[in-house]
Amino acid sequence: MTDVQLGLFRETCFGKLLDFQDLKLQPQLVHCLLLREISHSIPKEIWFDVSGFGLRFSIAEFAVVTGLKCSGEFDTSTIPSSDSNSLIKKYFNSCSKVTREDIETCFLGQKADCDEDTVKIGILYVLGLFFFTSSKDKVISETYLAIVDSGLWDSYDWGKDLFDVTLQNLKGRLFGADDSESDYFFYRILGFPLALQVWFYECCGYCDGVFACRSVSTIPRMLSWHSSIAHTFKKLNMELLSLSASQVFVLLLFSLLLFCFYYDFIPFNLFSFYVFYLSVEAAQC
C-alpha cells in the first residue's frame, strides 16, 4: 500500500492494526488453557480452572482485546445485493466463489484501479486471513463482500460474528482429554484464538517477560504485546500449574475491570464494583 492508501486504511475500524507488533500465536498455550476448561451453564462464555480459580472469557474480554465492535444490531436491509458488487466484477469475475486464497492473491499480486479499491481489498485481506482464520479454500461470505464493497464496514459488528466463531471452536474442544505429552493429536481452531492468548497475557502479569513482552498499554490490548518465540507445551504447562493464588487474583481483578469497561460502568467503591459484577452474572444465567 502507498502512504495515501495506508492513511485511508487507518481511518477505518481496522486502522489500528497498522500498529500491530510481531506477536506469534502460541497454539500450545491455547491448548494448555483448553485442557483446563470447566463446565458451566452460560452458553456465550468459556471458563478455565487455573490454580483452583475459575476464569472467564466472554465477549466483554474479546471486545477489549480485539477492539472490534461487539454490540448493537446492524441493519441488514442496507446491504446491497451481490449483483451490484463492483469488487467482484472488477477483481473476482472469474471466480464462482471468492475464497481466502483469491483475496490473498489479489491483495498481494494485483494492483487495484484506485486507492479506495485497494483499501477495500485490504479490509477483506484482514478479515479473511487475519481474523477469520481457516483453510485457504474457505469461501468468503457474500454478505461480508457486500458490506466491504458498499463501505459499511465501520457500522458492522464484526466482533460479534468473530467471537461466535471463535467460541464455537474453543468451547468443549478438549473435555476429557489428558494433558500428558504422550497424547498428541491434531485439531484446528478457526476464528481468532489469538484473542484468548492475549487475554491471558493481560490478566496474568507473570506472563510479561516470560511468554511475551508488553511494550505499550493501549486498547485494543492485542497491540500491547510482542513475541516471536513459540514456547513448548512442557514449559507452558509447568508455568500454568505453578501460578500462585496472588498471580491468579490479578487475573480475576482484570476480568472485573473489563466488565466495567464493556458495560460503561464506573464503581464508587470496590463493594459496588463486586455487586455490579454479580448482578450481571446473575442476569446472564
TrEMBL record:
Source domain of life:
Eukaryota
One Pfam family recorded for the sequence: DUF1985
Q: Which residues cross the membrane?
A: 240-265
The answer to whether the entry has keyword Transferase is no
Q: Which UniProt keywords apply?
A: Membrane, Transmembrane, Transmembrane helix
Domain named DUF1985: residues: 34-168
Q: Does the record bear Iron in its keywords?
A: no
InterPro entries on file: DUF1985 (IPR015410)
Protein name (Swiss-Prot/TrEMBL):
DUF1985 domain-containing protein
The species this protein belongs to is Cuscuta epithymum
